[in-house]
Amino acid sequence: MNGNYLIYGAGGHAKVLQDLLGKLDLEVEVFFDDSNQLDNIRGVKVSPYEAAFSPDSLIVLGIGNSRVRKLLSEKVKHGFSVLIHPTAVVASDAIIEEGTVVLAGAVIQSGAKIGKHVIVNSNVTIDHDAIVEDFVTTYPGVYIGAEAVVGEGAVINPNSVIMRFSEIPSYYEIGPSEIVDGKL
Q1: Nearest CA among 104, 109, 97, 78 for reference residue 7
Q2: Residue 53 pairs with which residues in a beta bridge?
Q3: How far apart are CA 20 and CA 85, in angstroms?
Q4: Pick from 63, 107, 99: which is nearest to 82 by CA?
Q5: CATH of the domain at 17
Q6: Nearest to 45 by CA among 64, 63, 21, 27
Q7: What pLDDT digit, counting tens, does each position of 82-136 carry?
Q8: What is the model's pTM?
Q9: Which of 80, 113, 134 is the last residue of a domain?
Q10: DSSP bridge pairs for 173
């Protein structure tokens, strides 16, 4: 594998990932976007996805929408990795699966399990032994309590609180500043 990354997406989340990669002293080789609306982002070429382009480079999905991220993860032929911002705090025994990004100021506590292609946004706290399944999107300021379970593809909007032992169904959306206490 080389030190360059590919980003699939060309919107706001993709730009955040470009900044994160820069903080990790990694380069973005290209942005993939199938809409053909842009030709570059901050001097980096934008083009439709090509499986044969730089096959040894890793890719990260710069798409905020959980369902679209899932579809793209099945389409993409490149390898995925985990990206963790240098200001995030992650317990040594936390499990974080491929394609997941952990952004600035996030905290992931002991025993937490984070699935594939999850966005752990800025200043999100995931407490001990919580389970966040694949393709979940968290927005800034979210708290997920101890032993809570967040189902695949769920969207947790800014400043929401998922109390300990709570359960969020797959592809369910929690509103901004909402407090969930129990099973939905």
Answers
A1: 78
A2: none
A3: 6
A4: 99
A5: 3.40.50.20
A6: 27
A7: 999 999 999 999 999 999 999 999 999 999 999 999 999 999 999 999 999 999 9
A8: 0.95
A9: 80
A10: 155
Regarding beta strands 40-41 and 44-47, do their DSSP bridges make them parallel or antiparallel, or are they unpaired? antiparallel
Do both 99 and 170 map to the same domain? yes
Task: Tell me how crowded residue 46 is: count the other CB atoms within 10 A of its CB.
Answer: 19
Contact in structure between 142 and 159 (CB atoms under 8 Å):
yes
Q: Cα–Cα distance between 37 and 111 in angstroms, integer? A: 42
Residue 130 φ/ψ, nearest 5 degrees:
-75, 155
Say how far residue 152 (Cα) sits from the centre of its chain: 13
Q: CA geometry: angle at 9 spanning 144 and 99, to 5°?
A: 45
103, two tokens: 């952004």
Least Cα distance to 160 among 178, 145, 146 occurs for 178
Domains held by the chain: number: 2
Structure tokens at 182: 């129990």
Tokens matching residue 34: 């199938």
Give the pLDDT confidence score for residue 9 in this predicted structure: 95
For 174, the token pair is 């929690």
Residue with tokens 């309590």: 145
SS3 112: coil
pLDDT digits (tens, 9 = 90+) for 34-54: 887 788 898 899 999 999 999
